[in-house]
Amino acid sequence: MNDAILSPGIRPWAFAGAAAVLAAGVAAIMNPNVQQALFDRAASELTAISNTAPLADDALRVAVCGTSAPLPSTARAKACVAVFAGGKFYVVDTGPESVENLMLWNVPMAQIGGVFLTHFHSDHIGDLGELQLQSWAARRPHQLDVYGGPGIEDVVAGFNGAYSHDQTYRTEHHGESIMPLASWGMAAHVVTLEGEPTRAKDRVGVAYDDGELRVTAIEVDHAPIEPAYAYRFDYKGRSVVITGDYKAHPPLAKAAAGADLLVSEALSRSMTASLETAARSSGRGQVETIMHDIQDYHISPEEAAAIANEAGVGLLVYYHLSPAPDNFLARRLFASGVNAVRTDDWTIAEDGSLYTLPLDSNEIEIGRIDE
Ligand SMILES: [Zn+2]
Ligand SMILES: [Zn+2]
């Protein structure tokens, strides 16, 4: 070896020593007994963890548990937003893969207060059965309350039916004290809107009110899909409006007036049109048609920014991103028209984005639920 290429003071024997230590380390971790000891330590940490931080103090918190639309993304689950208030958490939409996020973040699943479904498209309901199962297995003390527009009874009955054999297996295997039948399953609650239907689709209705937390259903336009709601959570002077899918919908600005946070879906028409063109070029007519059709019943980032401005919300958060902008350039392109409408106070959510709204304050703290 040529000492000239080594830093001053470093000698070949030092490399030999380091190599020997490395080799010994590799040999050690390849030993099954060492692997078992490492796993035992990880297991004790894993089973001891319950991430109660979002519920630790009295505040309104919003964690985004799924930020993508139906197109696949390795970084994002489908639509899901968790709201923490009053010692419980509530879930708006249960898109596929979203429950895995909640589990990975060690959210205390037994403390779920209810589920609110915006509408019944599959990217908003796919994990409902898993959410029921995982919160039951975590010793949820009662059936899971699920709120939604007319049709919610069918959705809940379908999931309950599909999971009924699973319940039998688990109760018989683990015992009634561990997996009690009484707290298994979901109870459907139909949320109705006040007044007669209007052409403007501008009705609201109280979905839930326990005296401290009030959840208001807001009718939105996702035609031809009906019912389609957004939900407004008001808790001790702080508030968040969470949309499902909708096209630019002026009445939402009124229903969202003064909210601290607007968590809105958004679809980039230019990026979706590009996917449509690419699908046509490659002869994938099915994909081409779907990419074409979805452009007319979603809101664009710019349109959502205009509604946020009109409503006077503190922070606009984009989620249910279509297509999911999974790198820096894609995010720039996705939001390229936003600054012309709303120069500040908007952000694109990632899975795990956490927004904390302290009480008696106008502050909005941005962080992550897994930190
Ligand atoms: Zn939809
Ligand atoms: Zn959707």
Written overview of the protein:
- With 371 residues, the chain is an alpha/beta fold.
- The chain is 33% helix and 23% strand.
- It contains twelve helices and 15 strands.
- The strands form two sheets. The protein has an eight-stranded mixed β-sheet. A seven-stranded mixed β-sheet has the order 7-8-9-10-11-12-13.
- Strand 7 (204-209) and strand 8 form a beta hairpin.
- Helix 9 (269-281) runs antiparallel to helix 10.
- The chain is globular.
- 40% of the residues are buried.
- Mean pLDDT is 94; it is low at 1-5.
- The structure holds zinc ion (2 copies).
- Residues 119, 121, 222, 225, 245 line the site of one zinc ion.
Compile the SSE list and pairings:
Elements: H1 12-29, H2 32-48, E1 59-66, E2 80-85, E3 88-92, H3 98-104, E4 112-116, H4 122-125, H5 128-137, E5 144-148, H6 152-162, H7 164-174, E6 186-190, E7 204-209, E8 213-219, E9 229-235, E10 238-242, H8 251-255, E11 261-267, H9 269-281, H10 285-293, H11 301-311, E12 315-322, H12 328-334, E13 346-348, E14 353-358, E15 365-368
Parallel strand pairs: 3-4, 4-5, 5-6, 10-11, 11-12, 12-13
Antiparallel strand pairs: 1-2, 1-14, 2-3, 7-8, 8-9, 9-10, 14-15
The chain binds zinc ion (2 copies).
Residues 119, 121, 222, 225, 245 line the site of one zinc ion.
